[in-house]
TrEMBL record:
InterPro entries: His_Pase_superF_clade-1, His_PPase_superfam, PG/BPGM_mutase_AS, Phosphoglycerate_Mutase. GO terms for biological process: negative regulation of glycolytic process; regulation of pentose-phosphate shunt. It comes from Bifidobacterium dolichotidis. This is Phosphoglycerate mutase family protein. GO terms for molecular function: fructose-2,6-bisphosphate 2-phosphatase activity. The keyword Ubl conjugation does not apply. Keywords: Hydrolase.
Amino acid sequence: MLIHLHLIRHGQTFFNRYNRLQGWSNSPLTASGMADADKAAHMLQDIDFAAAYCSDTTRAQMTAQRILDVNEQNGHKRPELISDMHFREQFYGYFEGQDASLAWTAAGGPHGAPSYNAIVEQYGLAATRDFLKAADPFHDAESDAEYWHRVEGGFALIASNPQLHDGDHVLQISHGNTLLSLMQRFAPAGYDLSVRPRNGSHTWLDVDFEKPLDEAVTVQIYNELH
């Protein structure tokens, strides 16, 4: 069963605007964030979605609703929106809501990599999660293994939907670091991953759910804006 998975990064929030880590915590969409969602909605208005998923955060839910509103207005049947924790952003634990630059300095500084990009360049993307967990005094932040176990559960949730058929299009509202992580895992070459996916951007993955996950995903579009 090949599914066309359309991933939209949620609209800008106040935490995005203030450069604060925002994983499982939440802040409202800004006016610009609502415009991000509306632009994404018009970009996808001609796609007939068989299912729609998002994390159980209001920023993802609001983005999804605005997209589905426009989709429905353009004559498409509105699918039920399924909100689930498996689609959340990475959990930053103690560092939730903190200034991102300070948090990544705390994580990577002891390893000689005092920024997010420096950690990625010297140690790889997985280390950003493991270093942050180690720096978290409560060790609540997700490790790389914990993160992928949860995210893979999201793919399994989509695969288990009995209403989906081969060739269906599925909407999923996603998050910045998750989109980067998916691209690093499934398309590590040929894309500039030094630039974060933009709010409201469109990433298209074709997923063959009859194959093991690491063989199942083909990237069609990354970080597209209209």
